[in-house]
């Protein structure tokens, strides 16, 4: 017999992961992001569908964080969370304002400011929520 699902507890855990991801951006901590990384990881954006394994996601965040500084990575509205009745799958829709600068290896500095709205898909594996899919949209500010 399975235990009843505590949707409140599951929602709180997903929101904790979202808060951890925010801190990982400010701390430039790819390992923290990888703590909840599933594979394969499917991304959708710019008219493309791509799939990556954990090592490829790690390499992406290592490059993305190299020389970066975040001034802002903040929710513009509360995240929207939906969890399946059996708590095996979930999604979270977020809308964030991001301001970042990145010093390139040649010393040039690029600055980006945008609003990100996206959907992150999660699967529960081994009792842990893992990111398995992301759909991203960006609006320049």
**What proportion strand?**
over 45%
Beginning-to-end CA distance, first to last residue:
52 Å
Number of helices: 3
Order of helices and strands: HHEEHEEEEE
Which spans of ≥5 residues are poorly predicted at pLDDT below 50? none
Query: Structural class, judged by helices and strands?
Result: alpha+beta
| C-alpha Rg (nearest Å) | 16 Å
What level of helicity do the residues show?
Answer: 25-40%
* Gross morphology: globular
Annotation, overall tally of beta strands: 7
CATH classification, class level: Alpha Beta
Number of domains: 1
CATH topology value: Nuclear Transport Factor 2, Chain: A
For the residues shown, what is the average pLDDT? 95
Major sheet attributes: 7 strands, mixed
Brief rundown of the structure:
By secondary structure, this protein is an alpha+beta fold. The chain has helices at residues 7-27, 30-34, 54-65, and strands at 37-45, 48-52, 68-75, 80-83, 89-103, 109-125, 128-140.
Task: Give structural notes.
- This protein is of the alpha+beta class and 141 residues long.
- It has a single domain (7-140), classed as Nuclear Transport Factor 2, Chain: A, CATH 3.10.450.50.
- Helix content is 27%, strand content 50%.
- The protein is built from three helices and seven strands, in the order H-H-E-E-H-E-E-E-E-E.
- It has helices spanning 7-27, 30-34, 54-65; strands at 37-45, 48-52, 68-75, 80-83, 89-103, 109-125, 128-140.
- Strands 1, 2, 3, 4, 5, 6 and 7 form a seven-stranded mixed sheet that branches.
- Strand 1 and strand 2 form a beta hairpin.
- It is globular.
- The protein starts with 6 loop residues before the first helix and ends with a strand.
- The relative contact order is 0.19.
